[in-house]
Design brief:
about 0% strand, mainly alpha, 10 helices
Length: about 200
């Protein structure tokens, strides 16, 4: 007598089991595909094309952001032109002229900062300010500021005096108690100390 083959159950229980298995399979497949890589929004990526278009919002026909463009740029990012952030930004862009950004300076500096729009640059303000708290960066910014100061029609200090003022501010106490009058300080600082002591005594 032939053996009857066992038929698969087609009842509700079997259908539910099959459906559960399908869901498990789908869920497992979904989880694997998600674990294989991190989804990153395209808006987070830096775009050179977008950065260049941003530059042309402020640049003149000579492809340089000049005084008028700089004023609009400062207004858009929400800082005054004399804000220290602008000095640090100019240093980051390696700008050669005070109040001007060339296309090459803009692209190189903004690429370094990964900024291609106003909002991204604003998000870097804390980072730019933090550069002033780093001793090495602060010295470089201070020296860079001297090159900017040389472009002014007012010439008060030479380079050595400029650097000595920085050293003075970092080593001499506010009350001048540790100032060495026989030290190798420039006459400019000797005169300042003498004036300050007279001022404190009065």
């Amino acid at each position: 007598m032939p053996v009857k083959k066992k038929r698969k159950s087609s009842g509700p229980a079997a259908a539910a089991a099959d459906d559960t298995g399908l869901k498990k399979c789908k869920l497992g497949s979904y989880c694997r595909s998600q674990a294989s890589g991190k989804v990153i929004s395209g808006e987070e990526h830096f775009s050179s094309k977008k950065c260049l278009a941003w530059f042309y919002e402020y640049a003149g026909p000579d492809e340089v952001v000049g005084p008028e463009g700089m004023e609009k740029f400062c207004e858009d990012i929400g800082v005054e032109p004399e804000n220290i952030i602008m000095l640090v930004l100019a240093w980051k862009l390696e700008a050669e002229s005070m109040g001007f950004f060339t296309k090459e300076e803009w692209l190189k500096g903004m690429t370094s900062l990964q900024c291609d729009c106003t909002e991204k640059l604003q998000s870097k303000f804390d980072f730019l300010r933090s550069q002033l708290n780093d001793i090495s960066s602060f010295k470089n910014i201070y020296r860079y500021a001297f090159d900017f100061a040389r472009q002014s029609k007012y010439r008060v200090m030479n380079k050595d005096q400029w650097y000595n003022v920085l050293e003075f501010s970092r080593t001499v106490h506010a009350d001048l108690s540790n100032y060495d009058e026989d030290g190798a300080w420039p006459v400019l600082l000797d005169e300042f100390v003498e004036w300050q002591k007279v001022r404190q005594a009065s």
